Amino acid sequence: MSVKKFKFVSPGIFVNEIDNSFIPRTPENMGPVIIGRTRTGPAMRPVKINSFSEFVQTFGNPVAGGKGGDVWRDGNNVGPTYAAYAAQAYLNSGVGPVSILRLLGDQHDSYTTGGKAGWTTTNALGATSTGGAYGLFVFNSQSSAPASGKVSTGSLAAVWYMNDAKIVLSGTMRVSNTLASGNALMINDLGSNLTFRAKITSGSTTVKETTFNFNRESDLYIRKVFNTNPQAANSTHTETVTPYWLGQTFDQNLDRIYGSSQSSGSYYAMICGVASGSYGYHNMQMGFQNSKTGWFVSQDTSTDTAAFKPKSMQKLFRFVSLDGGESVQNSFKISIEDIKLATNPDVDPYGTFSVVLRSLRDTDNAVQVAERYSNLNLNPNSPNYIARRIGDVYATWSDSERRYRYYGNHPNQSKYIYVELNQDVDEGTTDPEYVPAGVLGHPRPTSFNLMSGTAGDVHNFGDTTGYGIDGWTKFGHAMIAGFGSITGDAPSATYGTSSFIFNGPAVAADIEGRNEFTGSVQFPRLLLRNSASDGGMADPTNAYFGVLTTRGATSTVYDESVPDMLRALPADISAASWDPNNTSTEYSFQFSLDDVKIDTGTGIAYFNSGSRVAGTSLSAVSSSFGALLDKGYNKFTTCFAGGFDGLDITEKEPFRNTKLDDATELANYAYHSVKRALDTCADPEYVEYNLLTMPGVTNTGLTDHAMKICEERGDALAIIDLADGYVPFTENTSTVANRRGSVSAVISNIKSRRLNSSYGCTYYPWVQIRDSIDGDVLWAPPSIVALGTMANSERKAELWFAPAGFNRGGLTDGAAGIQVTNVRERLSSKDRDDLYTYNINPIASFPAEGIVIFGQKTLQAGRSALDRINVRRLMIYLKKEVSRKSAQVLFDQNVQATWDRFKALVEPLLSSVKTRFGLTEYRLILDESTTTPDLIDQNVLYAKILLKPARAIEYIAVDFVIAPTGASFDD
Question: What is the DSSP string of 266-302?
Fold first, then answer.
């Protein structure tokens, strides 16, 4: 420190400490980028993973495939997740990290016909057509003439999705007891637990006719008797097609409204299309979406309690999943806890609170924390500002620029979420007294009254005169439609195909006087805690108000229907806005601690919506929000919702090659999604890697693009899979014999492509591997074991040693990092010769030695040192390391001393590689012959490095000479 920095006034000794002992930051190890599907986890951006246990924690276990079940709820366990096995193969070597880029579905900004992501069912709902989405609406039996003031409570209970099929209820109609079957008919229940009978037909064929109920323990439980696998409706890869599937069932919501045990004879239902024309629940064609919470809102600081509405309070912030898709909403919920008002407003007027990311399946009795952020506040200038502590950076993808653009002020600290701040809060213009006191629910279709006329009135769906459904072209108010069908008596023209038929045949004389009905219909919402003692809480102050994810208020069992209530709304709603718009959507709930009361007898708190308006909540009675906090009731919970994977859920493998082939980026979302993932990895300053693979993808355009990216970067090798090697069961309905690959087919494929790049390599055939967790076996693309073998070769020797042969390429011995049990085709020596001639590395099986990778060629056509993988990987390593060391002299003076320092940095590296058998000889030239005066004037330092790579032995020739008896071996 210069003496000028000291302030000398009177004599004395001045001491200063300067720390120059900082250790320079060493670069992280590089590994591969692996692109593909995983069970769960962050998506569409590379995430660095350092161990297989970390991979499982972040992305879930690998999926061997072939397991159906309730695919709608449990996810796709049918198609194997090859990317997960590739990660396992590499990480088991322990040589370094991998970067996983999990694929989701997205459509191009300029998509053309057929290019939308997501899924839809065939045909739109209509009077004569079939298909679409059909909802089961359940009502209680509280009904009489509208004049009596009684209103029947109705709610959506389940949704079926139809492909050229339709569903009807059958039974006795309400009041008339006439036997009938159809939709838009009010049918009485057949027994307890909401028991009804339905029939699904496709043309003249009865696909399914069954009785069902909503008792999870019953053999007639709705999810046990109906198909819940959307993939069964896809004829591309399913031989016996089921033209429908059961989607959402809202078990928790039904228990919330009607109780957990619904008695017989107390309920009735009708099935209607959950659609409006071509729009509706069947239309989920959109790209992946991030899940979000609703807005967290402040406490009410007004003294006018009669005007209180949670949705009118100051919006503060909400949480958004870092990555698109349903992963976060299906895994986590979020709680605000330990809310405190400012203790000394004159010093610091801001209150504090904590944010806890919790398992969706936990209970308030046993909280499972994924992340916790304590002592946060809403002061933008504080180090504990919520955005600074958690992060508020988000990214948007530009199709025109082929890259992400980043927004936000504070780097993300959370692995899963970021904070979206209300602009007023982020600018510091809101009242410092505000703390999060409530939360608004995610949007749902708007509630409506089904009927509000007088005796004998019948109103059509499209009636906008105040009766019936207020304009069935609107979502929410009228996103239900249907057509009646009564055995032996078709609907009359008077009531048309868009009328609700409540009682009897569509004949005016029969309906007159018996159609007295008023129903209030709500779409499902999550359960909210009522009492702090619910769930057997030992200490009521440990209870979190707000959302409960259990089967009921008193239950501690997770309710599997919760994710069904968190799903994204149809594309026509979701694409417009995630937030409610008061026309098509509304808040599913509005929660605030301002509506919490204290029982005067027990002293236990309970939530009573509207109690602040009534002046009976604790904050209203005490005129202080802090009074509730002082009693320890300072926490509440909500969920994420609206996330969408953007995948076609009817596909066993949404990125199957038969879907990718002959596709264009604008007309095929799957092709665009993979290409976008590749482009995400194109910038070497965004993500570092030395290998790139997307296991199982054989599409020519995409594998060519992968090699092109590696070649342009100059620092990575692409491991690609070839078409015609093997066709997995996820691609089509071919027999096993017809799905087998052949040597001649893959050679013909690669000959037609005329590949010539040392930045790519490929292998044949597919191999059978065993899942180390579940013990399942599956056929896997050869790129998986090739990647694992390269890691094993680096672990045993160096990355510039050939990743092949019995020493480092023995797959039976575990060289691939996973257990290999078989090959799809046993290669003869002639097969191996043919493959190697065309730069395809054989995977051979020997009787004694087992399965082994028996080649290490790149896809370079011309013969040079770079037509071998070990040399190409050596050059990738040297270029990257020399570049890193060169950065240490960048912007220094271009003089001899700097040249000497450059050589002092690079020489030891080259010498070390030579010592470790990567080079046989090298020479580094940096003097006036390379960096000439002219280059110095151009600010250029120019060095030459001459290398002689060590070659691997691939051919061994031994002469056995038989000598005569009298010959001397010394001659």
Answer: SEEEEEEESEETTEETTEE-S--B--BPPPEEE----
- Strand-pair category, 944-949 with 119-120: unpaired
Mean pLDDT lowest among 501-515, 555-569, 810-824: 501-515
For residue 205, what are the β-bridge partners? 202
pLDDT value at residue 9: 64
Beta bridge partners of 363: 366
Residue range 719-731: average pLDDT? 91
CB atoms within 10 A of CB 583: 12
Kindly give the pairing relationship between strand 841-846 and strand 760-764. Answer: parallel
By CB atoms closer than 10 A (0-12, 13-18, 19+), residue 631 is middle
> How far, in Å, CA of 722 to CA of 749, rounded?
8
Task: State how far the Cα of 800 lies from the Cα of 810, in Å rounded to an integer.
Answer: 17
Summarize pLDDT for 54-76 with one digit per residue, the tens. Answer: 999 999 999 999 888 899 999 99
Contact 201, 280 (CB under 8 A): no
Distance (Å, whole) CA 610 – CA 602: 21
* Spatial separation of the C-alpha atoms in residues 716 and 873, rounded to whole Å: 8
Closest CA to 106 of 509, 688, 668: 668
Instruction: Outline where DSSP puts E strands in 615-754.
Output: 636-639, 691-693, 717-720
| Alpha-carbon gap, residue 178 to 574, rounded angstroms | 41
C-alpha–C-alpha distance, residues 607 and 882, integer Å: 65
- Quote the pLDDT of residue 457: 35
Alpha carbon distance 383, 377 (integer Å): 9
Structure tokens at 583: 């026309």
Domain extents in the chain: 32-105+688-870, 119-286+446-522, 296-444+525-639, 899-971
The predicted pLDDT at position 663 comes to 76
The runs of H, that is alpha helices, within 27-114 are: 52-59, 71-74, 82-91
Q: Tokens in use for 99? A: 């970067």
Q: Is the pLDDT of residue 80 over 80?
A: yes
Residue listed under structure tokens 């058998």: 917
Instruction: Examine the pLDDT at 382 and tell me if it is beyond 90.
Output: yes
Here the tokens at position 691 are 């290998």
Q: Are 212 and 220 in contact (CB under 8 A)?
A: yes
Instruction: Evaluate if residue 810 carries a pLDDT over 50.
Output: yes
Inter-CA distances, 273 with 127, 166, 190, Å: 10, 10, 22
Strand partners, 269: 138, 187
| DSSP assigned state of 923 | E
Cα–Cα distance measured from residue 327 to residue 288, given in angstroms and rounded to the nearest whole number: 11
Q: What is the pLDDT of residues 443-476, one digit of tens each?
A: 998 877 665 343 333 333 333 333 223 323 222 3
Q: What is the pTM of this model?
A: 0.89
3-state DSSP assignment of residue 922: strand
Among the CATH numbers 3.30.420, 1.10.10, 3.40.50, 3.30.60, which is that of 32-105+688-870?
A: 3.40.50
pLDDT digits (tens, 9 = 90+) for 819-834: 999 999 999 999 999 9
**Comparing C-alpha atoms, which of 415, 424, 340 is closest to residue 384?**
340
Distance CA 744, CA 736 (A): 18
Q: What is the DSSP string of 147-160?
A: GGT--EEEEEEEEE
Given a cut of 80, whether residue 15 has pLDDT beyond it is: no
User: Distances from the Cα of 458 to the Cαs of 397, 467, 516, 792, in angstroms?
Assistant: 51, 9, 9, 75
Tell me: pLDDT of 141 over 60.
yes
DSSP helix, strand, coil percent of the chain (3-state; round to 5): 20, 25, 55
CB-CB contact of 209 with 202 (8 Å): no
C-alpha 678/C-alpha 664 separation (Å) is 15
CA distances (Å), 178 to each of 210, 544, 548, in order? 20, 49, 41
